[in-house]
Structures are given as C-alpha cells and as structure tokens.
Design brief:
heterotrimer; A mainly alpha (276); B alpha/beta (466); C mainly alpha (308); A: 2 domains; 13 helices; globular; C: mainly alpha; MetI-like fold; 1% strand
Chain lengths: 276, 466, 308
C-alpha cells in the first residue's frame, strides 16, 4: 500500500514538474511555431499549433526587413567594448578592496554599494547631455562608456578575490612580482568562476538591454539588435506576427544557445548573492 | 586637449568599424558608408566645438557635396518608397547628399529630434505628424520659416499649396508671417467599408451617424460580424468627433480654453452606447492600426474609420480577405466636416548652406515625379499641392483607382479650423486619457470632460505664459 | 576574515613610510570612482538641481528656477498620483506573487534531485536571461484580444475572452503576470541555492530533538536562508520600482494611464512632453522612495536576519 502511494506520489510529482516546465517554456515554443507559420495561419481565427508547411521564408523576410547584420555587429561591439572596459577598471578596484588596507576603505566601498542602487532610469537625462557635449550621441561609445563601472561587478569580483589565500600573494611579492602580475597571474586565474560570472552577466545584460540604446541612438548605423527587433512591431500597416517572431528569434537564439550549453554556470552566476 | 584626442580617436575607430561592414549591412550599407564618411571628416577636423565639427561633417572629402540628414517616420512599405525617393534624388544631382533615417512613429521622430537638437546634433529635415510639429515650433529659433523660401518663388511658392493644408502651421512671429512646415502627405479620416458584407446584410453605406447606428445594428445583431465599425486610438478622432457630431468647435474662439461640454457629453455618450453594443470597436493602445487591419481582413468588422493614408493597407487587407472595399465619407453629424492631418516636412534652423541644400531637396520633392508624387501615389495620401496632384503618378492613380478617387472627394469636407488652439502645448496626452477613460473604462463622459478641461486649460495657459 | 587583516597589516608595516605603497590602493580604485563620479554622483546631483528648474531644453538660456513648483505640480496632478499608486500596486503585487511562487517552487524542487528536477529548474530560470523585448513581443501577441492565443484558448474551452492589455481593469494584472512569469525562476533558484547551503547536520540535530516539520521550517530553515530572502526582497523591490521595458513595450502606460509607472512617467515627461524639470522631480521622488524602502527594510529585517 505504502509503495503504491509512493508510486502515485512520484508520478504526480513528475507530471507537476512537466507542467511547471511547460508553463515557462511554452511561450518560446509558441514563438518558434508562429515564426514558421504562413500569413494565412497567423491571421486566421482558428488556432494553428504546428504549421502545415514550415515557412522558413519568414526568417529571410525578417532578415531583410531591417539591417540585422549591422544590428548584431553593433550589439557585439558594444558588449565587447563594455566587458573590456569594465575588466580594466573593475579588476584593480576589486583587488584593492579585497587585498589592500587603506583609509576610508569601508566608506568608499559603501559608496560603490549605494551607486549600485541608483537606477539608470534617473541618471540617463544628465548623462545624455554629457554624451552630447562630448559629441558621442548616436555613436557606439555612448552605449559603452557610461557602463564603465559596474558596482555589482566590483562587489562580485571582490567576493571572489577575498577567497584567494594571502599566502599566494605573499609568495609572489617575495618573488618581486608587481601588483599587475599578481592580478593577472594569481587573482584572475584563481577566481575564474567569478570572472566568468561577471562577463556572463555583462554579456546577457547588455545583449538584452533596451532602455539605454533607445535613449542614446538615432540611426541604424549604431543601433543594437534589441531596438531593431522592437522596431519590427512599430512599423505601420498589417502586423505580420510570423515575421516579427522570426526577427525575435534572432534576438533569442544566441542567448538560448549559450544558455543551453552553460545553464549550470549561468544559473550560478545569476543567483550568486555573495551573502555568506 | 584630452577631449579632443578622445573625440578624434573615437571617430576614427568608428569610421574604421563602419567601413569594415559597409558591404554586409544590406539595406543599411548606404547609411553606414555616409556615417563613416561623416565621422572621418569629423576626425580630420581640428576643433571639437559641436558646431564646427558638424560643419566639417557636412562636407565630404571633395568639399562640394553638402550632407543633409533627413529623419522620417515612415516604416514598412511607405518607408521603402521614401528610401527609393531619396535615392533617386541623390542620383539626380551631386551637390547635395541626403541620408534618410527611420526614427519610429511621429512622436518618436520629434522626441528624438528634440533631444538631439538640444545636444547640438539635430537633423536638417524631419518628417513628422501634423499634431507633433508644435513640439518643435513652439520654441523660437528651432524651426526655419518656410515662407522665407517659398516667397523667393523659384519653382515652389506659397500659392502652390492648398490653403486648408498649411493654414494651421502659420503663425505671427515678430510681426512676420511664419510657416513652420510644409505638408507632405495630407490626409483626412474616411470610412472604409466592406461592401461585400454590407450587401450580404442588405445595408447601404451610412451617410449619417444615425444611419451608421442602424447599419451596425443590422450587421452585429444579425450576426454578420462581431463589430460595426472600428476606429484607431488617436487623439485625431477627438478633433473629428465633436465638431462633426455637434457642429460646434471644441475650443473657445480665442483658442485658450476647451469649451464644448454639451457637445462632448452628447458625442461621447453616443459613442459609449455604440461601444456597449459592440457597434463600435475602439482600437487597442498598442499596435492598434495593425490589429484593426487584421480584423477587417478577417471580416470581423464591417467599417473602419481611418486616415486616407491607410488606403493601400486596406486594399491589401480586402484582397487577402476576399471582399470588395469601398471608400466613403465619414458619416455626418451636424456637419460633414473632418479635420486634416497627415505628415509634414520640418526644416530646422542652422547653417545657411545646409538650409539651402535642404531647400533644394524640398523643391525637387515637390516638383519631380519621383518625389512626393511617387509617395502619394503609393500610399493614398492627398497631394499637398495642385502640381503634385496633376503629376503623372497621382493623376494616373486618380483615373485608375476608383477608391482613391472617392477618397479624394473627402478633401472637400476638410475644416482646418479644428486646430485653432492658441500656443503650442501637448494636448494630445490629456485628450488620449479622456478617450481611454470613456472608451475603455466607460467612465461618465461629463466627469471625464471636467478632468480634460482642467488639463487642457492649464496646458494652454502655460504655453501662453511667456 | 580576521586572518586577512593581520596579514595585510603586516604587509603594510613592511612598507611603512613608502608613500607609493600608500597611494597605490587609491590609484587602483580611481578609475572605478571616475566612472561612479561621472555617471552616478554627478547625474544624481544634476537631476536634483533640475528638479527645481523649468528647463528649456532647446534654449538653455531660458531655463529658470521655479522652486518647488515641479514637485507641487506632481503631487497635485491626477496622472502622477495614479502613476505612484500604480507603481506601488505593481511592486506589491509582483513581490507577493513572485515570493510566494518562488518559495513554494524552491521548497518543492529542493526536495529531489535528478534530471527532471534540474530540467524544471533550468526551464523556470530561462525567461530571466531572455530580453524583455522578446518576452513583451511574445506576450503582446498571445494577449491580442482578437487574434491572440490566450483568447482563442479561452473561447475554445467556453470561457469568456479577456481584453488583457486593452482594458484598464485587466492591463495591470496582465503586466504583473508577465513580469512575475519572467522573474519567478530567478528568485526560486536563489532560494534553492540558499537552502542547499544549509548543512545536513543541522537538520539531523533537529530531528534528534524530535522537532516537527513546522518547527524546523520556522526555527531553522527560514532563519538560515534569511540573508538571501532579505537580498531577494531588496532587489525585487528596487527592480519593481524601476520597471520600464515591459510597460513601454506591452502597453505604453495605457490604457487610461492604468499601467503608467514611475520610470515610464519620467521617460514620457522627457521624450513626449519635453519637460525635463518635472521628469527630474519625478526621478527624485523615485530615488527617495527607493531609499526610504531600503532603510525600512534594513531596520525591520536586520535584527531578524541571521548571518552565518
């Protein structure tokens, strides 16, 4: 009897898990389905779950409806720019906060944490004017430079750096290593998961960013893919959901591929709260 | 010093990056290349002051072509046509090179322009909507006076334009007549009808609002379709509804106060009644036009009140939906009057050489068959001038396209007094709030009118408080 | 931690007197602080100043001081009051829904391991890494009142269709639903991470004491994961106050301002109404609210939060 009940329990649990998974995955499957439907199928009053003939033409149409290669290139340039700049700035800062003693350290670190709380949605107005004073509006730079210091990134890196044993640093110092060498040869390799996390967070965050490029760009030449995809819907006339969803896949697929292969790491980086 | 080096370095790397992808950009390759050319020019310039860099950017390497930035609001098919128009202008001469960029809807293009102008990097020419121009023209010194150019009478003059299409953009500035923009594709609301459905139900095209109500009753209650007529979510229809329905202006004669309580209550109580019975479908806030197009195509509703500019889309929908489309006048209330609208071209103040180059482009737009004529013939908008109307593409369309001809007759009902509001302030936000409350939430029109009046009067008072 | 300090102190003594060593840490953090100064501190000060001005964007010479006028306008303006209320409703609703669902899911999924559990966790987390642009597009398609999947399904099973995003009464719940769907997995996995960091020996000790499931939960589990719960509450609250993308893409603040939230209001004031002064005043209101809430959280919870 007990066994039977346990069996039933585990069957129910499996079904529940499948239902929960389905709730979260379904919109993406639906996106895929619509992106492959014909115009008639999307616009009919009846429901099409699986298209009769897969319309790969929708992807071609979406690809040609806006300069997607340009958008994707811009997105990548922006992300690489941000990650490189952030690393150059955050690694020394995190190192100083993790392994050095100096006056005002706690206050300065507190300022970083407070900065983390200041929403970009408030700061964007003055930054916009600053960028235009520097003649950087409508360039890729205005989408890179304002993200130079990521307060959360410093916090995260510091947490990892603190776990590197001091003995290693001591030994390196006795070998007359400079701080630069210590950072490069000890801190970074020893806290690889932390560094990977910061890069991953930055990549996903900025690939998906909508607000900042919306504010900072005026021309296709510098627009990233999110704006391009959001624009697909903004055009007047009939709404071709199949083409829009095909375009949407361009935005989703790269992240999904990365997610598929690195789900464990991604989840770890995103859910790392640093609270011990 | 540092700033200068940075700007130069940034521009140079930008130029590099952009040239590298010139071929791959597909549709955007021309834009990318000119951007690259621009930034290279900027990088070679030795000063960083915004104005000078901009001036430098306007000259390409050979020093004879003037670069013009044209921001427009046409996506989709209309955007493609506009891009082709700009390409033919660029190919037709070598003095001026126009770069056209799509900036989103009418509001987006103006909003982007505002911030860009404030930052000293605005475009030279903007295409936006009738109801949005005032956002720029309200501040002196931003928008160029089109009369300065029209009155030179070198190929395009003020007499060319239909008075009812430019009247509302005229104002007095320092004792001089000032025209803030030129109409491009003019429009007015018309009634698109699914004639096949009407015939099936034995209904004729309604000429008055009472007939409309009756027609919808037959159609909806008889189960021929789900809704009677649809209307997109746009403040334009506020300007349409009250004067048309009641025969009275919405604003006081000095243009300083909203003054139409009785009319508004009467009009919107009538509309609410239609909505409750599914005789009227107020379009949703986002992608409203597109949703209604789809509903028309699926024959879910029999009528659609929308701009003549949407003719092409309606023809497409009718073809796909397999029904006969007939264009008619918006039903009459106390009058047959309808407001005008559509899109306009706004030239911005700035460097004289650029303004002259922009004017050259504008002149070409209004006189060449490949210019605005092509745009009009491909969309369904009204021609802004008699010359454009008589141009081959538009004249051909008028003889061959029965619906366009019928739509064109609606031009006789245009009453531009609708926009007689004093000062430039954004009334469309409170108006939209009013319409949302009445249409979606079925709130009491009288109470909502009081909210609207307070907001409008305050905005108008503020706009006139110089 | 203790060991750390002694070591670095030793280091410092060795280099005492060497001013180069002393300024080194400041040099290392300098670039980061340039960034914070330029893009956080300066903008916040500027916003504060502008909030007391009527800013003329197109002609800055016409910008003038107006005192508290922007603030008094906001506080007496119906649309802004509605916006504030919406922001609180949105924040409260998402907080309640996400917290409840995330906690239930976390406790349930933490019980078992194996491929299906991992798959479910991965699936629940997925929306978090996808752009809100994509998600808004999919949901606005599914929520289309006439052609959307949701209404097709509802009518197919005989239920009445919902207007979803197009009516004031259903727009906010719809937006909250989408936002919650996107975030549940993320917070669920943070809680699972916290649950798994509790060592088994504590539970063993509890079961030796014959503590019931309820007592274990109240006396051990909740206190042990309280730092993470605290973190979750703060980030979720601040995140909800800053919501913009979903609102802008799903409803544009409408209908009838039913989904107008603070950041959307700010955006609209800047780009549609070109009223920088009011936008900045609204920004300061947002900042104060976030600040006050954070302080309240710290006060209320810091005593109860158990740090390992």
């Amino acid at each position: 009897m007990y066994k039977v009940r346990k069996r039933i329990g585990s069957v129910i649990s499996v079904i529940l898990k499948l239902i929960v998974s389905f709730i979260f995955i379904f919109p993406f499957l639906w996106m895929l389905s619509v992106s492959l439907q014909s115009d008639a199928e999307t616009q009919s009053m009846s429901l099409t779950l699986i298209p009769k003939v897969l319309q790969f033409q929708n992807y071609v149409n979406a690809w040609h409806s806006a300069p997607f290669p340009l958008y994707i290139r811009n997105s990548l340039l922006i992300i690489v720019g941000i990650v490189v700049l952030q690393m150059l700035i955050m690694v020394p800062a995190a190192y100083a906060f993790a392994k050095m003693e100096f006056k005002g350290k706690n206050i300065l670190f507190g300022i970083i944490l407070i900065a983390f709380m200041m929403p970009i949605q408030i700061r964007f107005i003055p930054i916009y004017f600053m960028m235009s004073d520097w003649n950087l509006i409508d360039t890729l730079w205005s989408q890179i430079i304002p993200h130079m210091t990521d307060a959360f990134g410093i916090f995260l890196l510091r947490q990892y750096f603190m776990q590197v044993p001091d003995e290693l640093i001591e030994a390196a110092k006795l070998d007359k290593s400079t701080d630069l060498q210590i950072m490069w040869k000890i801190m970074l390799p020893m806290s690889r998961p932390g560094v990977a996390s910061v890069i991953l967070l930055s990549f996903v965050g900025h690939w998906n960013d909508y607000f900042w490029p919306l504010v900072m760009t005026n021309s296709d030449a510098v627009r990233p893919i999110t704006i391009g995809v959001a624009r697909l819907k903004a055009t007047e006339g009939s709404l071709f959901w199949n083409t829009i969803m095909a375009g949407n896949m361009f935005l989703v697929i790269p992240v999904l591929i990365i997610y598929f292969f690195m789900a464990r790491n991604i989840i770890k980086s995103f859910t790392y709260t640093g609270i011990k | 010093m540092n700033k200068r080096i940075m700007a130069a370095a940034l521009s140079a790397s930008m130029a590099l990056g952009l040239t590298a992808c010139g071929g791959a950009g597909g549709g955007a390759s021309t834009t990318a290349k000119t951007e690259a050319a621009k930034t290279t020019a900027a990088a070679s310039s030795t000063t960083t002051a915004a104005a000078t860099t901009k001036a430098a950017a306007s000259q390409s390497s050979d020093g004879s072509t003037v670069e013009i930035n044209f921001w427009h609001s046409m996506g989709g098919k209309n955007g493609e046509v506009l891009a082709a128009i700009v390409d033919s202008y660029n190919a037709s001469q070598s003095k001026v090179h126009v770069t056209a960029t799509y900036q989103g809807g009418y509001y987006d293009s103006i909003a982007n322009a505002q911030t860009a102008i404030a930052a000293g990097n605005g475009p030279d020419l903007i295409q936006s909507g009738t109801g949005q121009v005032f956002l720029l023209s309200g501040t002196e010194g931003i928008v160029a006076n089109m009369y300065d150019y029209l009155d030179k009478n070198d190929g395009l003059s003020r007499d060319d334009f239909y008075n009812s299409f430019i009247y509302m953009y005229e104002s007095d500035q320092n004792g001089k007549k000032f025209l803030s923009c030129l109409p491009m594709g003019s429009s007015t609301p018309v009634l698109y009808c699914n004639k096949t459905l009407l015939d099936k139900a034995g209904v004729s095209i309604p000429k008055t609002w009472d007939e409309m109500k009756e027609a919808c009753a037959t159609l909806v209650d008889g189960g021929y379709c789900d809704y009677g007529f649809a209307q997109p979510r746009d403040s334009w229809y506020f300007w349409m509804a009250i004067p048309n329905f009641t025969g009275k202006e919405a604003f006081s004669s000095d243009g300083l106060k909203l003054d139409c309580k009785d009319g508004a209550v009467k009009t919107y109580t009538f509309a609410q009644d239609l909505i409750k019975k599914n005789y009227m479908y107020p379009g949703p806030a986002s992608e409203g036009g597109a949703t209604i197009n789809q509903m028309m195509q699926a024959q879910q509703c029999a009528f659609y009140i929308n701009s003549v500019g949407g003719l092409k889309n309606q023809e497409t929908a009718a073809e796909a939906g397999g029904y006969e489309l007939v264009v008619s006048d918006v039903p009459a209330g106390a009058t047959k009057d309808v407001p005008s609208g559509g899109n306009v071209l706004v030239m911005l103040e700035g460097d004289q050489k650029k303004k002259d180059a922009t004017w050259d482009f504008l002149k070409w737009m209004y006189t060449s068959d490949d210019g605005i004529a092509k745009f009009i013939a491909n969309s369904g908008y009204f021609a802004p001038t008699e010359k454009v109307k008589n141009s081959k593409p538009v004249a051909d369309k008028l003889t061959n396209d029965e619906n366009y001809k019928r739509a064109y007759s609606a031009i006789d009902n245009v009453n531009s007094n609708y926009y007689m509001v004093n000062g430039s302030s954004n009334l469309s936000t409170p108006i939209m709030t009013f319409m949302d409350a009445v249409f979606y939430d079925l709130e009491d029109p009288a109470a909502q009118y009081d909210v609207l009046k307070e907001a409008c009067d305050e905005a108008l008072a503020e706009a006139n408080d110089k | 931690m203790k060991k750390n300090t002694t070591n670095t102190e030793e280091l410092e003594t060795r280099h005492r007197g060497n001013w180069k060593e002393k300024i080194k840490p400041y040099l290392y953090i300098a670039p980061a602080f340039v960034g914070i100064g330029l893009f956080t501190i300066y903008p916040v000060i500027k916003v504060l100043i502008w909030s007391f001005q009527k800013v003329n964007q197109l002609d800055t010479s016409k910008t003038k001081w107006v005192g508290m006028k922007n603030y008094s306008y906001l506080l007496s303006n119906g649309a802004f009051q509605k916006t504030l209320l919406n922001t609180f409703i949105y924040t409260g609703a998402t907080l309640a829904i996400i917290m409840t669902c995330a906690l239930i899911l976390a406790f349930w999924l933490n019980k078992s391991q194996g491929h299906l559990t991992m798959f479910t966790q991965g699936a629940a987390f997925m929306p978090h890494v996808i752009s809100s642009v994509s998600i808004a597009l999919v949901f606005s398609m599914m929520m289309n009142p006439s052609f959307g999947l949701f209404n097709k399904v509802l009518t197919a099973v005989g239920l009445p269709a919902s207007p979803w995003l197009t009516s004031s009464s259903t727009a906010m719940p719809s937006v909250v639903g989408v936002a919650s769907w996107k975030a549940i997995g993320y917070y669920c996995l943070i809680i699972i991470g916290a649950l798994q960091s509790i060592s088994a020996s504590i539970y063993e000790a509890a079961s030796l004491d014959n503590a019931g499931a309820g007592v274990t939960l109240r006396k051990i589990t909740i206190p042990m994961i309280s730092p993470q719960l605290f973190f979750v509450m703060i980030t979720m609250t601040i995140g909800s106050f800053k919501v913009f993308d979903t609102v802008r893409l799903l409803t544009d603040g409408g209908p009838n301002n039913a989904t107008s939230v603070l950041v959307y209001y700010i955006y609209k004031q800047v780009f549609w109404e070109s009223n920088i002064g009011r936008a900045c005043a609204a920004g300061i209101v947002l900042l104060v609210l976030v600040g006050v809430l954070t302080v309240i959280y710290f006060r209320l919870l810091s005593k109860r939060v158990h740090y390992q």
